[in-house]
Amino acid sequence: MKKENHGLLRPCTLIWLLLLALTVATYVAAELGLQGQGLVMGVLTIALIKGQLVADWFMGLRRVGSFWRPVLSGYLLIVGTFIAVAFLLPQG
Amino acid sequence: MTNPIPETTNTKSPPGDLAIWVFILAELSVFGALFVVYAFARRYNVELFDHYQLTLDRTAGLINTVTLITSSYFVVRAVAAIKRGNSPTCSRWLSAAILLGVLFLVVKGMEYQHHFSQGIGLSTNLFYTFYIALTFFHFMHVIMGMVILTVVAIKAHRGGYSAEEHTGVETGASYWHMVDLVWLILFPLIYVMH
User: What is the DSSP code string of B32-50?
Assistant: First the structure.
């Protein structure tokens, strides 16, 4: 395909590679047999970071005004918090 | 060498049609609720969920995650191409993204086939109920996204978009990125976390 020179492409290419690296890190952590709270916190944090990277760079929300980016960030935070609570808090 | 295009300046509106963003928020809300319900269902059935999670093909999950991330990146390239007014390149990147969508469906289909051939179904146990329901719900969104990208790719191929007017490309792209984003949470939640 024709080579493009776009102000966004280089950072987006780096973000793509970073997303792949974080995905492989998640997989390797599981394959190594890691488990428990450390795995849950690590993997969940990575997932939320990846989600924010997609929202910011692929969806282009980092340049969007004061509503949409906070909504997406808040979504990730709320869902992530509930999942963390469900996985990590001891049952009463 | 083409002329570089500066980053778009800050704007109040997200890329694409505003309606798709309302739809995206609705979709994310549904998936988010399902993720939380899954997590709390597991909380009260830890042994069951952890045991049957081991029956999943984590490598297939990895392949599908890499596939969707790369597909999303191709869509970014398509949007960049149309912003330069290059419809043929935009169409080719979208076609490549759609092909990766097909790969996702094939890999996921093979996973389903493996489970179904062992007599596993929605009613086998609570873990499989969630696994099949959640992943199939996402599966249907992948198909929907591919249909949207196909329509956009055909229109781009026919020169229906330009550097000045490419809302349709951005709208389809936004939906596809949402499908990717959902999977980025779904994969670790169902295949990895225990």
Answer: HHHHHHHHHHHHT-HHHHH
